[in-house]
Amino acid sequence: MNDIKLALLGSEGAGKSAVLVRFLTKRFIGEYASNANSLYHKRLSIDGRQLNLEVFDPCSQSGESRCILEEPVDWADGFVVVYTISDRTSFLNAKNILAQIKESRRETCKGEVPICLVGNKQDLCHSRQVSEEEGRSLAQENKCLFQEVSAAENYLEISNLFTKLIRHVMEQLKLRGDRRRYSGSKSMAKLINNVFGKRRKSV
């Protein structure tokens, strides 16, 4: 079974946890604020391959929280960076997070870093502050996948974006020959214990 590790990053209020839970369970959980870091586990099959997916959902990141990003960026095979289309500040923070990922992984990652930039809360188009063109342009600048979604209304789009990202991760791991990955003794569970304090969840 192949192990895939993703990190979910974004501002408070962007709905990143709602996007993740929608993907994992098909349910919409609504907004909630959490000051805890969570690790989710799910087994799934993509293109006939059995995968063990781990997704780390840390506390929401502010633009200055470089230290919070360091461990997830080192650990993850791929990233989902979430902003809300109704909050320009969250979009600017997503731009900063993308820059931090690129800077951190420039020396350690040969090839592209698999990232999906997600504009959430598409259902709030009446209060839109970030155009779809802006999101798509930022994604192109950073060689990311891009999708606008509504965690409240649409499971299929969210499922598709995670599937595309996981496929990209598998391609990059194959190209890199799996050189960068941690050994089993350096699992994310241990990392969260040592660095963050943990809250494990299986779905």
Major sheet description:
7 strands, mixed
Read across the widest sheet, the strand sequence of neighbours is 6-5-4-1-3-2-7
How many individual β-strands?
7
Indicate the proportion of strand residues: 15-25%
Shape: globular
Describe what this molecule looks like in 3D.
- The protein is an alpha/beta fold.
- It is built from six helices and seven strands.
- The protein has helices at about 15-25, 65-75, 90-105, 130-140, 155-175, 190-195, and strands spanning about 1-10, 40-45, 50-55, 80-85, 115-120, 145-150, 200.
- Strands 6-5-4-1-3-2-7 form a seven-stranded mixed β-sheet, with helices on both faces.
- A hairpin with a 2-residue loop joins strand 2 and strand 3.
- Helix 1 (about 15-25) packs across helix 5.
- The longest helix is centred in the C-terminal third of the chain and has 22 residues, at about 155-175.
- It is globular and about 45 Å long.
Keywords:
203 residues, alpha/beta, 6 helices, 38% helix
Helix-strand layout with pairing:
Elements: E1 2-10, H1 16-25, E2 38-46, E3 49-57, H2 66-75, E4 78-84, H3 88-105, E5 115-120, H4 132-141, E6 145-148, H5 155-176, H6 188-195, E7 200-202
Parallel strand pairs: 1-3, 1-4, 2-7, 4-5, 5-6
Antiparallel strand pairs: 2-3
